[in-house]
Specification:
Layout (H helix, E strand, L loop, with lengths): L2 H28 L11 H13 L8 H16 L1 H12 L12 H28 L9 H28 L10 H7 L7 H25 L7 H11 L15 H5 L15 H9 L5 H5 L1 H4 L6 H24 L16 H6 L5 H5 L6 H15 L5 H13 L30 E4 L1 H6 L1 H16 L4 E2 L10 H6 L2 H18 L3 E4 L2 H10 L8 E4 H10 L11 E5 L13 H8 L4 E3 L29 H10 L5 E4 L2 H14 L4 E4 H8 L4
Parallel strand pairs: 1-2, 1-3, 3-4, 5-6, 5-7, 7-8
């Protein structure tokens, strides 16, 4: 009969008409933005699709909700075969997929994954309705419930269809290999042949119409991630998480109205940033780990992305309509109209949100791009930021100290200050904190003693070392950062620098991951990496016991942004007498000290202080000492411990190792 194929053809035409119309509109919304990063490193992008999308790696970081989602996702992939079979059966009742159709193993896999999808839906309902985690605050739960109901309907109609076909004796795979469908088929065995055929037709068409309805509905819903997330993962940055997208500001071009100073309006967002908004699953994993949100501040990475998505859907059609009519649409400011200024400034750029996000949304890029506009385009920023920027511009360091005193901390250590002549094996990049802050200077001295003990040839730049520019860049002053980067890179070239050791993770990240955009060609290692290697090679041999219980804090820009977790712990494990104990939030789940994103220089006026939250977690372990590998963390956590009135010593890994060598 031709009625079935004709009805299916009309339904397919309507579905794909609705789907393609919306897909084209969404594509045009994306193209309203700017190009952003180039699409390079294809092997890494394909690998991300395999691991993040197919393997569900980031979802499985939290096992129970992860396995729930994996059951549904993997089930849909496998059950694509049943959709092909259902559509084929409209044309011929004996349809089978070439090569694999009617095989026992295919029937078993289909039956098993039907069960797993149903189990996944039950788990999702339990998590959302019984457990009700705080991370769902602000999410569109009613729409999510409707999506789950549609998926359940697709599974139940599939199960009913397979059972009815077994009862009719026309099943694709042997009944014994589809145990669940075979069990359900007993409900039809007592029915007449005509009734069984009626149920087969009912389940077949219900299954098909639910699938087509699902396809037509999703692009118009808040659950665009079902189709957008795969593309978003492919387009995500393949660089280290700590590397920001450079603007390469040309002052002359800016004067001619060309170039960008950050994200002021929707059209200033990059294609990837707009696609990020489509890809949000509203799962709230980012929100649950955000240090700002967890200490009572208004920033929620999830709500920020959702608000931007709503803005895209509201403004996008208006901009397209105005362009079609040859008119100018008045631009709508992102800040504070869509995202409050306070939300933008609350971020520590710790990367916890990006670590958790299962679809590779790059929240930090959104925030920094908005900061760039506020700082460079509108000169609108917290009052304290003005002092930071003035110090950087006038003194080349955030402290506003005289550059001539940058090497004073090393005056009695016999450290070579690099001048003319060949550069030694290592340049020790001290950083501004290590040069000017009294507590951080002690870390610099410990690093020097360790390098000297290991007979490592090294030198420092002294007054030729400028700020790396990290505070300016994270604050949003890209042009000031660019100036520092270009000058420092030129210094590296002039001095013939090939290898740099840095003890500040912020400098380490900037020199290693961001300076190559400005022509740097140097190897950069963190001091904990070098110390661990020297201890491993026997060039540093700890002999004196350090009898203490120590808990180690992972710096965000060393751990999450650059993946250095093992080496600091390895160095500490080699110290005689030292016992270590992890805090509940450690390694990839480590909690920020509150200093990143230039928050070191800004006041916290809302909620609980982030450094206090982290210091309390460290104190609760009962440790005598709190180990760090970052001068910012040292300062922030020492302040937090003192505010608590607790006797816990905050020490850098280098200081602990130096004690074990009698070099402190």
């Amino acid at each position: 009969m031709l009625i079935g194929p004709a009805v299916l053809g009309l339904a397919l035409l309507a579905t794909f008409g609705l789907f393609s119309r919306r897909a084209d509109q969404l594509r045009r919304f994306v193209l309203l933005g700017t190009r952003g990063r180039p699409i390079d490193d294809l092997p890494a992008r394909v690998g991300a699709e395999a691991v993040v999308v197919l393997g569900q790696r980031k979802l499985l970081q939290r096992f129970v909700p992860g396995i729930m989602h994996a059951f549904i996702f993997w089930g849909f992939l496998v059950l694509l075969t049943t959709i092909v079979e259902a559509f084929g059966e409209v044309f011929t009742r004996t349809f089978a997929i070439p090569l694999i159709g009617r095989t026992s193993w295919l029937g078993l896999i289909q039956d098993v994954f039907t069960v797993l999808v149903i189990v996944g839906i039950e788990m999702a309902v339990f998590i959302r309705k019984v457990v009700r985690p705080d991370r769902f605050k602000g999410s569109h739960l009613e729409e999510a419930d409707f999506i789950l109901l549609m998926i359940l309907g697709i599974m139940l109609t599939l199960l009913g269809l397979n059972a009815a076909r077994i009862a009719l004796g026309v099943n694709e795979s042997p009944a014994a290999w589809t145990p669940l469908s075979n069990l359900v088929s007993h409900a039809f065995t007592h029915m007449s042949l005509g009734t069984r055929r009626s149920f087969e037709g009912l389940f077949l068409w219900s299954h098909i119409l639910l699938i087509l309805g699902f396809l037509a509905y999703i692009p118009y819903s808040k659950h665009l991630h079902i189709f957008a997330s795969e593309v978003n993962v492919f387009l995500a940055s393949t660089k280290a998480r700590g590397a920001l997208r450079p603007l390469h500001i040309d002052v002359e071009r800016m004067g001619e109205g060309q170039g960008s100073l950050g994200a002021a309006t929707l059209e200033d967002l990059t294609w990837k940033e707009i696609l990020d908004t489509y890809s949000c699953t509203e799962c709230g994993r980012c929100q649950s780990v955000c240090p700002a949100w967890n200490t009572g501040k208004p920033l929620s990475p999830k709500l920020l992305v959702m608000n931007l998505r709503d803005h895209v859907f509201d403004e996008g059609p208006k901009i397209l309509a105005a362009r079609k009519a040859g008119e100018e649409h008045p631009p709508a400011a992102l800040n504070p109209g869509v995202v409050e200024d306070e939300v933008v400034w609350d971020c520590t750029t710790c990367g916890a949100c990006m670590q958790e996000c299962p679809v590779d949304i790059e929240h930090i890029d959104h925030i920094v791009d908005m900061r760039r506009n506020l700082v460079m385009g509108e000169s609108r920023f917290p009052q304290e930021a003005g002092l930071l920027l003035r110090n950087l511009e006038s003194s080349s360091n955030p402290w506003g100290a005289d550059q001539a005193t940058r090497a004073d901390w090393a005056r009695d250590l016999g450290v070579k200050v690099l001048g003319d002549g060949p550069a030694p094996e290592y340049l020790y990049w001290v950083g501004c904190a290590g040069s000017f802050d009294d507590r951080a200077r002690e870390v610099s001295r410990a690093v020097v003693r360790l390098l000297q003990r290991a007979a490592i040839p090294f030198a420092i730049l002294g007054s030729r070392e400028l700020c790396s520019g990290d505070p300016a860049r994270r604050l949003g002053h890209e042009y000031l950062f660019q100036t520092f980067a270009e000058r420092n890179v030129q210094t590296f070239r002039d001095a013939g620098i090939r290898t740099i050791v840095a003890n500040c993770p912020h400098c380490f990240n900037t020199l290693r991951n961001e300076y190559p955009d400005f022509g740097a060609d140097v190897e950069v290692v963190h001091h904990t990496e070098l110390i661990a290697r020297l201890m491993r090679d026997g060039r540093l041999r700890p002999t004196e016991e350090v009898n203490a219980l120590l808990t180690y804090h992972d710096p965000c820009y060393l751990g999450r942004h650059n993946g250095v977790y093992t080496e600091p712990r390895e160095a500490l494990d080699r110290v005689p007498g030292l016992t270590t104990k992890e805090m509940p939030r450690h390694r990839e789940r480590g909690f920020c000290c509150g200093a990143g994103g230039s928050r070191m220089w800004l006041e916290e006026r809302l909620g609980k202080r982030i450094n206090l939250e982290r210091a309390q977690e460290a104190i609760a372990t009962g440790a005598d000492a709190l180990g760090v590998a970052c001068p910012y963390c040292l300062i922030m956590l020492d302040d937090g411990a003192k505010a608590e009135g607790k006797e816990i010593q905050v020490l850098d890994v280098a200081q602990v190792v130096a004690r074990s060598l009698g070099a402190d």
